[in-house]
């Protein structure tokens, strides 16, 4: 091959990163989220050159679709395995052909409505408690009072997510994101960032409320830097009970350490008491609040919603031994391992 022919072919060559970026552009992709490194860096640069927005993350997650997981909790009457978009489309097409809804006066609906009423009564009773530190229900009751109707609600944690699902309401479709059936930890802040990017571009003024347990926050807490780097409209609420499910207060912690070092005596579910997670937010330029009473919670949330210039993190201290109401079904808490 002559030198001139080689030069012509070299000029025509396109990098793999540009090919991927062009493919994404062709598919109308508007946002790309990734962990910086080879080859992500090259793809990100190529995508940005084509007008695609790139959001560099700090924490990487994986997703699997596995047929073996069908019926992992309760044996279903029917299982569907396939691409969610394709399956949903097929279901809607069939329902259009044969309209159907579950009879509203059936025994199942009657039982469900009765259970809803009893759950609501139990939650209200727990939310009305005035003792300090607060419990989960008291916290969520005061949060719910101020939530904007059009906000995205992101929830992650154990008790935090489960109780939050029953108390924190959302009124619009596709406005609730959480860790799902398996309670996968580390996804909450990523969900919040993705929702906030869409909200910032398409609905300026719309907020993302990301509710995290203190343990859940630890899985991807450094994404706070990502939130501040892009100045996203996110309010983080860390419901802090000093542990995973349960923890200890400061006095109990100090008493334990009188006997042996922490590695020998501290239960594995316990975290350092009264950790100031709000300082992670202030370290990167956002607003941070440490609250211990309903009044402090109400005030800090009001200020955070009013401040549209910066993201916020409210660190909410609750009773370390606070629990959820008793569960009726053993499969909600049992392990399949």
What does this 3D model show about the protein?
The protein is an alpha/beta fold. The chain has two domains: 82 residues, no CATH class; 187 residues, Thiamin diphosphate (ThDP)-binding fold, Pyr/PP domains (Rossmann fold, 3-Layer(aba) Sandwich), CATH 3.40.50. The chain contains 14 helices and ten strands. The protein has a six-stranded parallel β-sheet, with helices on both faces. A two-stranded parallel ribbon has the order 1-2. Helix 5 packs across helix 6 and helix 6 runs parallel beside helix 14. The chain is globular. It starts with a helix and ends in a 20-residue tail after the last strand. The model has no long low-confidence stretch (mean pLDDT 86).
Question: Which labels suit this protein?
Answer:
alpha/beta; 14 helices; 2 domains; two-stranded parallel ribbon; Rossmann fold; about 325 residues; 6-stranded parallel β-sheet
Put simply, the count of helices is: 14
Low-pLDDT parts are none
Count of distinct structural domains = 2
The largest sheet is: 6 strands, parallel
Shape: globular
**What's the gyration radius in Å?**
24 Å
CATH topology of the largest domain: Rossmann fold
What's the CATH class label of the largest domain?
Alpha Beta
GO molecular function: 2-hydroxyacyl-CoA lyase activity; metal ion binding; thiamine pyrophosphate binding
Keywords: Lyase, Magnesium, Metal-binding, Thiamine pyrophosphate
Domain Thiamine pyrophosphate enzyme N-terminal TPP-binding: 15-78
Domain Thiamine pyrophosphate enzyme TPP-binding: 160-316
């Amino acid at each position: 091959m002559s030198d001139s022919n080689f030069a012509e072919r070299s000029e025509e060559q396109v990098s793999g990163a540009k090919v991927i970026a062009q493919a994404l552009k062709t598919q109308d992709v508007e946002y790309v989220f990734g962990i910086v490194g080879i080859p992500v860096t090259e793809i990100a640069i190529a995508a940005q050159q084509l007008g695609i927005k790139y959001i560099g993350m700090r924490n990487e997650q994986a997703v699997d679709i596995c047929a073996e997981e069908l019926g992992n909790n309760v044996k279903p009457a029917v299982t569907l395995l396939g691409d969610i978009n394709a399956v949903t489309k097929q279901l809607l097409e069939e329902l259009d052909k044969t309209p159907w809804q579950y009879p509203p006066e059936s025994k199942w609906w009657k039982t469900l409505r009765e259970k809803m009423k009893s759950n609501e009564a139990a939650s209200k009773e727990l939310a009305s408690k005035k003792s300090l530190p607060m419990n989960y229900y008291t916290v969520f009751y005061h949060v719910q009072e101020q939530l904007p109707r059009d906000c995205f609600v992101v929830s992650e944690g154990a008790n935090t997510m489960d109780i939050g699902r029953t108390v924190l309401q959302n009124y619009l479709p596709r406005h609730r994101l959480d860790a799902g059936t398996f309670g996968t930890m580390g996804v909450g802040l990523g969900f919040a960032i993705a929702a906030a990017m869409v909200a910032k571009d398409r609905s300026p003024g719309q907020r993302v409320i990301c509710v995290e347990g203190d343990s859940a926050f630890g899985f991807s807490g450094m994404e706070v830097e990502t939130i501040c780097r892009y100045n996203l409209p996110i309010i983080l609420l860390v419901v802090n009970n000093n542990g995973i499910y349960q923890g200890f207060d400061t006095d109990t912690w100090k008493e334990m350490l009188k006997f042996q070092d922490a590695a020998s005596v501290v239960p594995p579910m316990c975290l350092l008491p009264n950790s100031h997670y709000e300082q992670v937010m202030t370290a990167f330029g956002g607003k941070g609040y440490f609250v211990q009473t309903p009044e402090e919670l109400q005030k800090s949330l009001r200020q955070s919603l009013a401040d549209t210039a910066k993201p916020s993190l409210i660190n909410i201290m609750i009773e370390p031994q606070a629990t959820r109401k008793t569960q009726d079904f053993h499969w909600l808490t049992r392990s399949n391992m």
